[in-house]
């Protein structure tokens, strides 16, 4: 047997081994191949992160609701937020029993403003987006604090006054007493909330994230409104006490 015969047999043997290996690879079941490849979607969290999984499902359900019926979801969420905020404010700021009329006013105010507020933040999220993320966030914060916050606070306190039966002059005084201080204090909270929301929170979850923060903020606004109302009542009492009494006329009719 010469060298050419051995070389030919060796080539055929090598080709046969390659074909057999390719057949085995092709015959492997897809599920068997998947066992060797880690999947991100089926990764089981470690013991330290397992507690997060039950918390994700309510947010996923809310995101699905928000996608299907954004207006109904927003209205329902806002009513819950305003009810809890007013309930908390009445418990914190007053020793008197719960006043359902105040709670009803809060629900009316929240219900009217829910959809416009939702539209505003959708507009804010879709605009002022620049190449620089820091510039985008700073612009959104400045525009929100300059335009939305004072307008909303004026609406909130003005409606609180009007729905409680106050006159236009009294409503104007309520706005003067509450809007500047509430706008000033809003800078301590909402810029950070806005920056975090537009940086880390997905659009479908931003309303519920802001809503959780807004429960505490609505508590503060309701407390500030009740405080202003008490001060106005005290001023009215003092003014009434200082007013001169009108003496009845004792003059005799002319003869």
Automatic annotation (TrEMBL):
Write out the annotated subcellular location.
Membrane
Q: So which domain of life are we looking at? A: Eukaryota
For membrane topology, the record states: Multi-pass membrane protein
For the region Disordered, what residue ranges are annotated? 24-47
Q: Keyword annotations for this protein?
A: Membrane, Transmembrane, Transmembrane helix
Could you say which protein family the record assigns here? Answer: Belongs to the peroxisomal membrane protein PXMP2/4 family.
Stated name of the protein: Integral membrane protein, Mpv17/PMP22 family
Q: Which organism is it from?
A: Aureobasidium pullulans
């Amino acid at each position: 047997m010469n060298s050419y015969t051995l070389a030919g047999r060796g080539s055929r043997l090598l080709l046969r081994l390659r074909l057999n290996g390719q057949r085995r690879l092709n015959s492997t079941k897809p599920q068997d191949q998947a066992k060797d490849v880690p999947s991100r979607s089926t990764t089981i969290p470690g013991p330290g992160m397992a507690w997060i999984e039950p918390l994700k499902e309510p947010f996923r359900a809310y995101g699905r609701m928000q996608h299907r019926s954004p207006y109904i979801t927003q209205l329902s969420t806002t009513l819950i937020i305003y009810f809890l905020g007013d309930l908390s404010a009445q418990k914190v700021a007053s020793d008197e029993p719960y006043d359902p009329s105040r709670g009803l006013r809060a629900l009316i105010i929240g219900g009217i403003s829910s959809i416009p507020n939702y539209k505003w933040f959708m507009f804010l999220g879709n605009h002022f987006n620049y190449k620089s993320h820091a510039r985008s966030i700073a612009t959104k914060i400045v525009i929100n604090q300059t335009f939305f916050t004072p307008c909303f606070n004026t609406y909130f306190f003005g409606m609180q006054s009007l729905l409680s039966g106050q006159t236009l002059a009294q409503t104007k005084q309520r706005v003067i007493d509450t809007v500047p201080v509430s706008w000033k204090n809003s800078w301590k909270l909402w810029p950070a909330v806005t920056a975090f929301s537009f940086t880390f929170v997905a659009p479908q979850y931003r309303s519920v994230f802001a809503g959780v923060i807004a429960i505490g903020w609505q508590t503060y606004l309701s407390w500030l409104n009740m405080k202003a109302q008490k001060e106005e009542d005290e001023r009215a009492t003092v003014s009434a006490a200082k007013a001169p009494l009108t003496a009845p006329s004792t003059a005799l009719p002319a003869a």
